[in-house]
Write a structure and sequence with these properties.
Layout lengths: L17 H8 L12 H14 L3 H14 L1 H10 L1 H8 L3 H7 L1 H4 L6 E4 L6 H5 L9 E5 L16 H14 L6 E7 L5 H5 L13 H18 L4 E4 L6 H7 L5 E3 H21 L8 E4 L3 H16 L4 H5 L2 E5 L2 E2 L10 H4 L14 H8 L3 E4 L9 H10 L4 E4 L11 H7 L5 E4 L6 E3 L2 E3 L2 E2 L6 H11 L6 H12 L4 H5 L10 H19 L12 H10 L4 H17 L22
Parallel strand pairs: 1-3, 2-3, 2-4, 4-5, 6-7, 6-9, 9-10, 10-11, 11-14
Antiparallel strand pairs: 7-8, 12-13
Helix pairs in contact: 1-25, 2-4, 3-4, 3-6, 4-5, 4-9, 4-25, 9-20, 13-14, 13-21, 18-19, 20-23, 21-23, 23-24
The structure holds NADPH dihydro-nicotinamide-adenine-dinucleotide phosphate, pyruvic acid and magnesium ion (MG).
NADPH dihydro-nicotinamide-adenine-dinucleotide phosphate binds next to helix 13, helix 14 and strand 7.
Length: 576
């Protein structure tokens, strides 16, 4: 909106009065006269939100709020994270991505196309924020379980970084949602006149990696030490292998998911009453998440006394061609070879049911994108084979979940130890309220990123990822443990992120990759205080911005009159 401003008066400000702040900001008269507290503003937002019927409408409303009043948005999310996370993240973000181009209204991140190679650095210079500390980057090739969504996948970096701010206190202006437009295999989008990405097939793996080389260099040149989170790439292994030892980066789907599932599995294995050596895990899905999760659990089983070979043999991975074995006849991609079995005939075990009948698993893990793949028949068998079957349907969004909480509970007489990727509500079962766990990497990636930023880690080591899982598994309260929960209450996620970040920092220090000197001598209490002191707090941020403006008013002749920033992340306080 463009408004003609009267000249800014300089002499008559009452610096304790918010209307003076408005006059200084030249917003006086543009907003109704009452100066509402943030509490009242939040109440208004919640009411407006509740009037919208569809989740996607709520998503769009919240996006608008983030772009117009960033601190209010984050205060709202922080205080109501359990209710709002499903609206700005999975499952709603899936629908938001599908509709991204048709709903587009304003920039929310940076888009870099294959055509930009050779001058990626200059595109980065267009980003209006100076002090970026973390980016979430995707090429949109495997968005949740929805397949190749091209640049419409931008909802994922935007959503993940919103959680970084709400759940781990990373300043919003320190985050960069990054979309790599490398073409798309989605013919529907190529034919769609409203699709806003390049309407060409995807570039090859080699071309993509070459492009990534330039991107990683350019990012680190512009923001040295920036933490890079790779997200939702169809084949993320080559990039992690190449850049992992050279830059501060991690892959959320391989490593973050591995850590979050391990965090829940540690508790589930204890509750199942069977030691690690007696666990048998069948995985539906042998992709980035499936293999990442299985590898983290192998590391845990080894700490429980198994050799690597013994630990590895506790896993049977099933992909779209059946059980992953050496004798299948197809050339297995590198990431599947580690778990490929040589003791079962592939011909006999083509379906999940056949593999399950063979193995009689104690753990059933779903990272396949196939909604409903854990049939009531299979779930019932899990209940017959186990006193406490561990059932984790982890695919997102909700429609892709391998089973519902209700089916898992009904088919196992309420005995399942359950976690899903997208949230399910509690259910009443035989007079009891049963609450499902949410095994989603949102429990760890904010703390991993915060820990990497604060320790100034040069790389993200496997020990840092493992430490995040252990921290998560230890973060349950006595009352949560008494109810046999596998994950802490989502409303406490900020506290959980602090614990995760602390352990990540300690692991970075131990691995010799931390460059921040302050953390060396800190005990736990001091470290916790220090971590918390570094976290963005939307309520105090609002007060700080108001104070800053008042200070400027007191000191007007010397000031330049600017307050805060006003970048793409909406660093604007429109209520002032
Ligand atoms: N809860 C959480 O925090 C997370 C959940 N996820 C979810 O996990 C799912 C998978 O992600 P990701 O591993 O990255 O994806 P990938 O594409 O890398 O892997 C998918 C795997 O599922 C297999 N698959 C596909 N269709 C079938 C089928 N009909 N029968 C058996 N197996 C099948 C694929 O087989 P093939 O190899 O033969 O193609 C592949 O091994 C997604 O839905 C994603 O949302 C991912 C990360 C975190
Ligand atoms: C949660 C997540 O990262 C995924 O589904 O890909
Ligand atoms: Mg992901």
């Amino acid at each position: 909106m463009s408004v003609a401003h009267p000249p800014r008066a300089t002499g008559d400000f009452d610096t304790t009065n918010s209307s003076a702040v408005r006059r200084y900001n030249r917003t006086y008269g543009l907003i109704p006269p009452t100066v509402d507290s943030q509490e009242v503003q939040m109440k208004r937002c919640l009411m407006q939100l509740s009037r919208k019927e569809k989740s996607i409408e709520k998503y769009l409303y919240l996006s608008g709020l983030r772009n117009s009043n960033v601190h209010l948005f984050y205060r709202l999310v922080t205080q109501h994270v359990k209710a709002i996370a499903p609206l700005i993240y999975t499952p709603t973000v899936g629908e938001a991505c599908i509709q991204w181009s048709s709903n587009y209204v304003q920039p929310e991140g940076l888009y870099i196309s294959y055509e930009d190679r050779g001058h990626i650095g200059s595109v980065l210079h267009n980003w209006p924020e100076k002090n970026v500390e973390i980016t979430v980057v995707t090429d949109g090739s495997r968005i949740l379980g929805l397949g190749d969504l091209g640049i419409n996948g931008m909802g994922i970096p935007v959503g993940k970084l919103a959680l970084y701010t709400a759940c781990a206190g990373i300043r919003p202006d320190a985050t960069l949602p990054l979309m790599l437009d490398l073409g798309t295999g989605n013919q529907h989008f190529i034919n769609d006149p409203l699709y806003m990405g390049t309407k060409k097939p995807r570039v090859s793996e080699e071309e993509s990696l070459e492009f990534m080389d330039e991107l990683m260099q350019a990012l680190h040149q512009k923001w040295p030490g920036i933490v890079v989170q790779f997200e939702d790439f169809k084949n993320p292994f080559p990039a992690l292998e190449k850049y992992g030892p050279r830059y501060t980066c991690f892959n959320d789907d391989i490593q973050g998911t591995g850590a979050v599932v391990l965090g829940g599995i540690i508790s589930a294995v204890k509750q199942s009453g069977r030691p690690a050596k007696d666990q048998r895990a069948v995985f539906l899905g042998a992709g980035s998440a499936g293999v990442g999760v299985a590898k983290q659990i192998v590391a845990y089983f080894m700490r429980e006394g198994l050799t690597e070979e013994e630990a590895k043999r506790c896993f049977w991975l099933v992909d779209s061609k059946g059980l992953v074995t050496n004798d299948r006849g197809d050339k297995l991609p590198d990431h599947k070879v580690y778990f490929s079995r040589d003791d079962n005939n592939a011909e006999q075990y083509k379906t999940l049911e056949e593999v399950a009948d063979l193995v009689k698993p104690t753990i059933l893990m779903g990272l396949s994108t196939i909604g409903g793949a854990f049939t009531p028949k299979l779930l019932t068998k899990m209940g017959q084979w186990n006193e406490k079957p561990i059932i984790f349907p982890l695919s997102n969004p909700s429609a892709n979940s391998e089973c519902t909480f209700e089916d898992a509970i009904k088919c196992t007489d309420g005995r399942a130890l359950f976690a899903s990727g997208s949230p399910f509500g509690p259910i009443e079962y035989q007079g009891q309220t049963l609450t499902p766990g949410q095994g989603n990497n949102m429990y760890v990636f904010p703390g991993i990123g915060l820990g990497a930023i604060l320790s100034k880690a040069t790389i993200v080591t496997q020990s840092m990822i493992y430490a995040s899982a252990l921290a998560l598994s230890k973060s349950l309260t006595k009352s949560e443990e008494a109810q046999d929960w596998l994950y802490p209450e989502i409303a406490r996620i900020r506290d959980v992120s602090v614990k995760v970040a602390m352990e990540v920092i300690k692991a970075a220090e131990e691995a010799g990759v931390a460059r921040e000197p302050h953390i060396k001598m800190m005990g736990d209490d001091e470290l916790e205080k220090w971590v918390r002191s570094k976290m963005y707090e939307p309520a105090t941020e609002t007060a700080r911005v108001e104070d800053e403006v008042r200070d400027l008013l007191m000191d007007l002749p010397k000031s330049n009159g600017s307050s805060g920033t006003n970048g793409v992340n909406g660093q604007k306080d429109s209520h002032l």
